[in-house]
Amino acid sequence: MQPSSLFRREAWEKAGPVDETVHIAFDLDLWLRMAKKGCRFISTPELLSTALGHNEAKTQLFARWMTVDLAIVIMRHGGNDAAVRPYLEDMARRLSMYEPNFAKIINHPLYKILMPAIGLFIKPAVRWRDTLPQWSAAKSKIDLTKSDR
Q1: Which of 44, 89, 112, 120 is spaced 20 to 30 A from 13 at the CA atom?
Q2: pTM score > 0.85 for this model?
Q3: H helices of 6-126, where?
Q4: Is 45 within 8 Å of 21 (Cβ atoms)?
């Protein structure tokens, strides 16, 4: 990932502003729109800036959301094959492996015995919606309906 990029005002005016409906891959969306408007890109080997990566960063904390966001942006710009194969098919494959194993674990008699003790050492989310990012459409719909309170 890039920690920074520079572009001319002309490129910004051609592509329009950042799409605020895209929460993680908004820079990719902007660059693809710039490319479609005929803007050229060049890279430089010089270090212009650095970025601090940490576990609370949006791209780390919501890595799966990032995968979906990237796929949506790529598909919006006509890259269905490029989005489906590496991103969505990989996510579907991982989920299809995890779901049966998760069901086996939570239905295992030993899990049911140990869960009260495990609960002493881990802090579960109060509600599943507390684990959703603040910018999530699902979270805003839940908060609007005030369900699960």
Answers
A1: 44
A2: no
A3: 9-15, 26-36, 58-61, 63-76, 80-83, 90-106, 109-118
A4: no
| Burial 9-21, CB ≥16 within 10 A → b, else e | eebeeebeeeeee
38 torsion bin: left (phi>0), alpha (psi -120 to 50), beta (else)? left
Is 84 in contact with 37 (CB distance < 8 Å)?
no
131-136 average pLDDT score: 66
Q: How many CB atoms lie within 10 A of CB 34?
A: 20
Cα 53–chain centre separation: 15
Q: Where does the pLDDT of residue 90 fall: very low under 50, low under 70, confident under 90, or very high at 90 and above?
A: confident
